What we know:
It is built from 29 helices and no strands. Helix 5 (68-77) runs antiparallel to helix 6 (84-102), helix 23 (385-397) packs antiparallel against helix 24 (401-421) and helix 27 (505-527) runs parallel beside helix 29. By secondary structure, the chain is an all-alpha fold.
Amino acid sequence: MRKLRALSLLLLLTGCGAPRAFQRARDADTLEAYRAFLREYPVGDEAEAVEVRITELEFEEASKLHTVVAYKRFLEAHPDEPQSRAARALLEGLRFNAAKEAGTAAALRQFLRDHPDGAQREEAQRLLKEAELKELSSTTDTQQLRAYLQEAPDDPRRLQVESRLDDETFARAETAGASQLFAYLRDFPAGRYREQAKVRLLELEMEGLLVSGLLEEAEARVAAHPLGAKLKDFPARLARARAERVALKNPEPLVQFAQVGHYLRSIDDLRRALLAPDPMDRWQAAEELGQHVSVKALEPLVEAFRSGRNPLVRQRALASLQTVLRTLPKPVADYEVAVRLESLREKAGSPELYLTMAALLDLSGRMGEATAEYQRAFVPEDPDPVVLRRWVQVREERRQSFSAAVAARQLSLWSLRVAREESISPEGGIPLAAARQLCAAVENARFASETITRARKANTEFPEDLDSFALTAAEALKLAEARLADAELLLREKTPGARTCGDDAVRERLESAVSQRRDALRSVGTKLPRLAPLLLGAARERDPSPEIRAEASTQLSALGSP
């Protein structure tokens, strides 16, 4: 009807002396001609008639192209015209055919989102169910399987999908390691692979004991465990470990000189030293304990990190944890971290425990998860210097110099506060704890100052801020050193021969041990040719020093050993 009125109006206008421009546009009857007319005469009866004709021509053009883009453009320009209904139907048909041809659940879901009330809705829903069933029968995407179960909790295929999710989750966990095996046990309380997961975890636990030389403990654990008989490879693995231990216990001096344990106090001695009254004994014990590449070194280090009062005890414990976990075989290290995280998750509720979880996640390479736990443990009004120091290290590793300097400034402020507040007086008894706390303040202030100096060299961003940070760090270092000198003077007056902050006897012994092991490994190839491959292999795999591992690898290559 509107078209008839428009044509009548055209005739009327033509008969009444319509402008020549309108007549020319009517004679051409093209979009270009009508649009040119509207540019000159946008208002008037002729303009209304032209707009109606433009809509007709644009719909004819979209129909000729017959594409999704063409119909979308027409509907965007003319959402309420008589042709719009036909355009929507044609657009729906194109999209439905495309989704049907694609045959994927994603394509059909998109169609239903675009046309929730369309004429093809029921057919699309039927095809969607078929596509979902087909995809679910072959997919290995556990997220897709979980999403489907959440979206369709009452679907009759639920048991089939749950079974497939069980299969795929365990298959991934089996190759991913201990953390995913524990996750599988949590998420699938009735999973069909629960026993297999527990057997694999037991295997990892036993491997940790074997590589740590704890053969009798491993043997007793397997014998007593209900699943011990399922460890089919354990007898052969135990036999190999026994043969290796016999060879490594050879009394030949060169054999002993090549092994790190020859230079260390025992783990039991170091555990006792971690309880010594002097914090220096504790932090030196924590440092030395990190040279024992053994699963038995982990728990005392975790406890020292968690409960230590002096920051240097906790810093040394954290560094030693990193050394041990990096040197243990990765599957074993992952197991040792995972089993502790499982325990902590059940009881975590204090900043100390959150911080322990953060450190374990951090040292196992899961920094994204660690960051969240660090934030939960962080107390802005009383920042932890160990955490601040770790943040500096992480940001420098990421080449975020200014961010590292910001954390370093916070660390220098901590040192400044300790230097100002730590009480030292002849009336207060022997100032041992104060001296050791000031030692931590000096070390951290020096670390902060060095970090800010590097940032000033590497970063031109916010130079005024970095200059201010440097002044704060310098002030903290100066005051902390002065207060430490006062405390240690008083300490030596009351206890002649007392050790001071610069006592590095343990570190020097450990550094000397590296040199001696290197010399021994360079000699075993010629002096002990039969034992050389074993000694070098053990050093390459389990020595805590990267330098020694590299040397052992070089010597093995020279021998032609893999």
